[in-house]
Specification:
179 residues; alpha/beta; Rossmann fold; seven-stranded mixed β-sheet; 5 helices; 27% helix; 25% strand
């Protein structure tokens, strides 16, 4: 691994494998939010035997993944999960990596409760600390609207681990798992 970004991604993957080994097992997976630029662990999850449904709100991102082997794509916003038609009623796991910071703090508990109703295992990740991000290439779903920390997920019953230090921008990460 040569670049800092590659080292950070490798550390996050290692943390996921150690903290949530059941994530990398066969079964159904609801993958929430996969951008053209980044889909953390997607290749590893498919290789592990996960049958993946990508839920993506931004049309260009959804089209980017449509038709790829091992993936089904549903265009929709996670905040409207209850009203969306998905291939599975209940998923073995849901993976929302660097996504919770894209919903308002006031919506977080409601959005997570909706995900919890649709998946037996919920795995979340987000930056730890202040990490401003505006809409990217017109995609308003990319904007960070909440600053979340371990205590936010712990208060909602999640098991939590961190990488780096709060506010380290690219190096920091909060990992939250339920049950």
């Amino acid at each position: 691994m040569n670049t800092r970004a590659e080292r950070i991604e490798a550390a996050r993957l290692a943390q996921l494998r150690a903290f949530v080994p059941g994530l990398f097992a066969a079964g159904t997976l609801l993958y929430i939010g996969a951008s053209i630029r980044r889909a953390q662990c997607l290749v590893d999850l498919v290789a592990a035997g996960r049958r993946v449904t990508i839920l993506e709100a931004w049309p260009a991102n959804a089209e980017h993944y449509r038709g790829r082997p091992g993936l089904e794509v549903v265009r929709g916003d996670v905040r409207a999960l209850a009203s969306l038609s998905l291939p599975a009623e209940i998923y073995d796991a849901a993976f929302w990596w660097h996504g919770p910071e894209h919903v308002a703090r006031a919506e977080l508990a409601t959005v997570l409760a909706g995900i919890e109703r649709r998946a037996r295992l919920v795995v979340l990740g987000c930056p730890w600390g202040v990490y401003p991000q505006s809409a990217i290439e017109g995609n308003r779903y990319e904007q960070h609207v909440a600053v979340l920390g371990p205590q936010d997920f712990g208060a909602l019953g999640y098991r939590v681990a961190t990488l780096g230090r709060a506010g380290d921008r690219a190096d920091s990460n909060v990992l939250a798992v339920k049950p």
